[in-house]
Write a structure and sequence with these properties.
This protein has about 240 residues and is an alpha+beta fold. It is about 25% helix and about 45% strand. The protein contains four helices and 14 strands. The chain has a six-stranded antiparallel sheet. Strands 6, 7, 8, 9, 10 and 11 form a six-stranded antiparallel sheet that branches. It comes from Streptomyces rameus.
Amino acid sequence: MTSNRRNKTRLLVSLAAALAALVCSTDLLVEHRTEGRIAARAAQRLDPHGPVHADLTTPLAGLRTLGGDVGDVEVTARGVRRQHAVMDVTVRLRGVTTDGDSAGGSGTATIGYDQVTRRLGSTGDGLTAKGRDGDLVLDGSVGRLGLPVAVRCEVSTTADTFTVTPTTVNVLGRQVAVDDLAALPSASALRRQLEPRTVPVTGLPRGVMLTSAHATADGLVLAFSIAAGPTPGAGTGAV
């Protein structure tokens, strides 16, 4: 009797282990295929020059997909070209369904400083944008003597623009507020160059708004909010 019970217990344990392994394998297989489809569709819409990766971050995402609920998704794409700029994009969406809807999310676009310098146009003519200690800085030489300067800037945003406002200038070890340059005859021309410059961020998908911008070592990072509803650019059967 005891032996039969032990055998039954072992059999149940073996069956449970086999079932768990099957569920795990099925989940991973479906998850991998779903991530591949999402990455392929993102690549088709974004047409990046670099790789695209998709990650399902909700537990048992593969099995949830079988019921039409993908869960949370993170998509990264490198080398996306928009507005004559190339950027690296990351999008995080919550509650994505196989129909292409989501509960909203957020995204970032990182733009290289060579492109930021070009987009700023005449602001600080001859100065180059960089990231330093979390600030956007314009470095270069000014005036007939070619004095080296470093201009620290604030970056503010609206829903579809970002504005770079120079605040202080470091020259010859001295820090001067940009607003005070107008009182210095030798620096008045530089003061005119350092007017705030607003750059439009056009062509955003419906429901996507610019929320902030900050400087990093890798580039200027633009952050976006994504409203609940259809995922940006999604059509029927998006996943």
